[in-house]
Design brief:
single chain; 292 residues; N-terminal domain of MutM-like DNA repair proteins; Helicase, Ruva Protein, domain 3; 2 domains; four-stranded antiparallel beta sheet; 7 helices; 10 strands
């Protein structure tokens, strides 16, 4: 499932085509994604303008002139594709994916002249319209922790959230109530960069009264560095993730430990070997020698 860098990459790709633009036509080719779309979905969108395109955790949020917010989630296999007015991207990429057109479930024709399609073979993605004044109570977003790339997310905040927790550090970072948007890949990568074991008890990054220690400082820096690097590379394309122009993300070529079991650790000076273990049903990749 796409994590924060993939979703942010998609948001940036959609922005030129959608932000400040009006929905000229909305075509719903299949009304049931992860859950059914509202019966008046197309009617409520048509004619409205996107006044802002943001992201919260792994969700895309389009503020609309109608006062609604369009919440979009990629699910496991969802992807957006932008076809420009002039060439509709029909040369290099569109024709190559003809066999996938059956999975183009929602189509937005924008006043920019661009056409935006949502393609989702497995249909775990979702779209939902919520009034802006009800967004804080929306179950999909309520209870989410801070954004890891936001200014408010720092060592003090993370240490306080982990104070007294006996769960593993990896499990704590995957808890969306502690920090929003992180998933298995980037938690493994950030922990390696911070030289912290995924098996370490979460509470050990906090000192007395929840004050952050040096481990918390290293971890927050590593999380931000890892996510920013991944966004710069367009995210990680392991299975389904695509940029809005159809290209692949490239960060998978920069993985330090994820999916590199048996390879030499990439920490300078470390002679360790990447190991794979299972935590809470998920694969964890780390170096037992330099991650303590």
């Amino acid at each position: 499932m796409p994590e924060l860098p993939e979703v942010e990459t998609v948001r940036r790709g959609l922005e030129p085509a959608m932000d400040g633009k009006r929905f000229v036509k909305v075509e719903v080719r299949r009304g049931d994604l992860r859950w059914p779309l509202p019966k008046d979905f197309a009617q409520r969108l048509t004619g409205t303008t996107v006044t802002g395109l943001g992201r919260r955790a792994k969700y895309l949020l389009a503020d609309l002139s109608s006062g609604d917010v369009l919440i979009m989630h990629l699910g496991m296999s969802g992807s957006f594709h932008v076809y420009a007015a002039a060439d509709k991207q029909l040369g290099r990429y569109y024709h190559d994916r003809k066999k996938h057109l059956a999975h183009d479930h929602v189509v937005f024709v924008m006043s920019s002249g661009s056409t935006v399609t949502f393609n989702d073979p497995r249909r775990f993605g979702s779209m939902k319209l919520v009034p802006r004044d009800e967004l804080d109570a929306e179950p999909l977003l309520k209870g989410l922790g801070p954004e890891p790339l936001g200014n408010a997310f720092d060592a003090a905040m993370l240490a306080q959230a982990c104070e007294g927790k006996k769960t593993s550090l990896k499990a704590a970072l995957l808890d969306q109530r502690i920090v929003a948007g992180l998933g298995n890949i980037y938690v493994c990568e950030a922990l390696h960069r911070a030289r912290l074991s995924p098996k370490r008890q979460a509470s050990t990054i906090a000192g007395r009264n929840g004050a952050p220690n040096e481990r918390a400082e290293r971890l927050v820096e590593a999380i931000k560095t890892t996510l920013n690097a991944a966004i710069k590379d367009g995210g990680s394309s392991l299975r389904d993730h695509r940029l809005t122009d159809g290209d692949l993300g490239m960060f998978q070529h920069s993985f330090r430990v994820y999916d590199r079991e048996g390879e030499k650790c990439r920490t300078p000076g470390c002679t360790g070997t990447v190991k794979r273990i299972v935590q809470n049903g998920r694969s964890t990749f780390y170096c037992p020698k330099c991650q303590k």
